[in-house]
Amino acid sequence: MTNVILLLSLLLVIAGCASAPAAVIDRAQPPSIRIKTHYVEVGETLYSIAWRYDLKIDMLAQANNLDRSYIITPGQSLTLIVGNSKSIKNRFKQHKVSKGDTLFSIASEYGIEMQSLARANNLGSPFLLQRGQIITLDIDGLKIAQDKSGEASKNRTSASQTKLKNPSYSKNLQWKWPVKGKVIESFSPDKLQKGIKVKSAAGSAVHAAAPGNVVYAGSGLRGYGKLIIIKHSDMLLSAYANNEKLLVKVGQSVKHKDEISKLGLDGMMYFEIRKDGDPVNPLTYIK
After folding, report:
1. Is 16 exposed, middle or buried (0-12, 13-18, 19+ CB in 10 A)?
2. What's the whole-model pTM score?
3. What is the C-alpha to C-alpha distance for residues 129 and 100, in angstroms, rounded to an integer?
4. Do residue 261 and residue 230 come from a single domain?
5. How many domains is the chain built from?
């Protein structure tokens, strides 16, 4: 009897092992994980963070209540959940006064007439500001009364003639190749190729593809190596990756002939252009 029971048990084990495993399509897939927060690290700028997560710089700033200075600090928590901006031009409604700010510099930065800004904030001459003070930039519909002597008109003319241009951007950009070489990988968003790869000589000098201002220079973006990002206008940015040596710093203005970096022994450069946050084909810009 015992032998019969053992034989039946063995047959049941063999039958269990022979049963087919569950089909892969029946297995539940793990939920996807979306990164919603970024903690700022040393050397990062808002531009590099927006580039890393394929976000529009103005929307990232708006989502985190940042003014146009885009100042961030190491350890700061940034939300990556951004919405659609209905009006990019008027997205900034306030400015927090920083050290060195004057009403004139704030008005020039945002392209607002100084007298209009003063009246919107109930400020009188000599327009003294305090660090941390909130200045409203919403002057829509504000009308400046002109006195009979025309003094207000004179002040407006003087202010408009002396507007600061910091930084300034060329309206008619002339794009040039940043390095001499052969394109060995073309732009193909469907294949996650957001830029082009150019094969050049070892240690080749890299030049800015167009005039602009450096908004990032470092190695904090994974997969880009030593990277430089240049802002050419309110909508256009270019990136130069896989460098051996960086020759420019954040905040520096560059021209076509300015050397910005050196390539390594493999002579390989990765180049991107983004318009309003979206990758575009560099070959449509470079002639």
Report:
1. exposed
2. 0.59
3. 10
4. yes
5. 2
